[in-house]
Write a structure and sequence with these properties.
The structure is a single chain. This protein is mainly α and 487 residues long. The chain has a domain at 273-487. 75% of the residues lie in helices and 1% in strands. It contains 22 helices and 2 strands. The protein has helices at residues 3-14, 18-36, 42-66, 84-106, 115-131, 135-154, 159-190, 198-204, 209-226, 235-242, 245-251, 254-269, 275-293, 299-320, 323-352, 371-385, 391-410, 413-428, 430-433, 435-442, 459-475, 478-485, and strands at 73-75, 80-82. A two-stranded antiparallel sheet has the order 1-2. Strand 1 and strand 2 (80-82) form a beta hairpin. Helix 4 (84-106) packs antiparallel against helix 12 and helix 13 (275-293) runs parallel beside helix 18 (413-428). The longest helix is centred in the middle third of the chain and has 32 residues, at 159-190. 52% of the residues are buried.
Amino acid sequence: MQLADQLQEILRSLSRFGPELFLVFGIAGLVITDLLLLRQSPARHRAVMLGLSLLLVVVAGTLVIGQFGQDSGFLFGSLLFRDEQAIFFKLVVTVAAGVAVLHASLTRPRLPLDWLPILLALLLGLYLMTMSVNLLMIYLSIEIVSISSYLLTALSGTRRASEGGIKYLLFGAVSSAIMLYGISLLYGLTGTLDLTSSLVEVELAKNSPYVVYLASLLLLVGLFFKLSLVPFHVWTPDVYEATPTPVVSFFSVAPKAAALLILMRVLTSLPANFQTPLAVIALASITLGNLSALWQTDARRLLAYSTIAHAGFLLVGISAFSEAGFDAATFYVATYLFINMAAFLLIDLLADAQGGQLTLRSLEGLGFRHPQLALALTVVMVALTGLPPTVGFTAKLLAFSALWETAQQSGNPWQVALFAIGLLNAILSLFYYLKFPYLLYFRTATGPETEAAAQPRGAGWLALALTFPILLFFFRPDWLMTWIAGF
């Protein structure tokens, strides 16, 4: 391609790169605003930074919504591909970022205000992840997300945060190195980094299946790390316990959504059949996550193991390796956003009423002192369990239905085992999710009686806004599934 053609391609791509360019300039503006407000009072400084960050996220989301209905196509050669599916996932991570900023505005996380530009940089990395179809671009976008995540984990400066950040960094560096090695092997086998190229399937078919499996699994390691799947989950409980809750709630959803889309694209591009290894990893993640959560007394560690289990449930639809399975996984991650971020927010708000403690015992007896938040948390826990009338039931039903349909056709014993044991694990999760309503309504506080703290302004409305879709999409799942199926 001639230089003039390359410049023309860059200009054409930039014209369709609106949300990402806006975030780049928005991050720079946010940093400058932070510097200009250093002499202002801390309260005013915090309010302006949170308000401006939320405005930037809202505008970015508006630009993303404006991309629906536009023509799909490649950007910057074949590095990125923007289609309806990528735009949908960008919208999901944007909503997650907005909820995280609102969460921080209702609480006071022990974080310097520097975390807000880093959060937007992480959001930019997630935008790139959702559109990446080039192996090198996938790696670079994951690194943007990972480096931002390491910084956010350790930014509070406490000893626990530093330890969590180091563990996160070490496990992330190892998984990135393994992933990069897999990319180099695939490039050597195919001669291209473009997943959409016909050379990928043609050239890989000429090699031994064992070589293809090895290179592909090394590539998938980085995605399994982002999804917190076994055996790449070890960092999750320590990071979730050490990081302020608004950041943790964002970690629990947004990177997983973007990694899930990349996983679907990688699996559909490779000729190898990964149904069995995916079923094994999903089964291990669901079982280990649920068994580990049973013994937790810290609310955030319990939810950390819960996210490991739910990452396995996300993989149930993927392991079916069918259009229905992929649609079910997309539905699962879109609705899981509301469920999990509501769980972190509500626990944080209820714990603040008891001096900021996040142990399960700190929730004892709060059901009648904070009825609105306690009722919302009960709905969320029922949704995490996967019981009606919540969308958690619908999401699991769609995922396991797609798996069962595939298992009947293929006769794969691991898929049958995943179906049976996965459903048993859903029952097992009852024993720790229902601890929350039990403690809220059927136990009295064992410590000295304290006066109920006033709820932050807007806490009840945000709780209602997050729990409403959890109930709505149970009764009208077709509103979301029709959208997803149209990609």
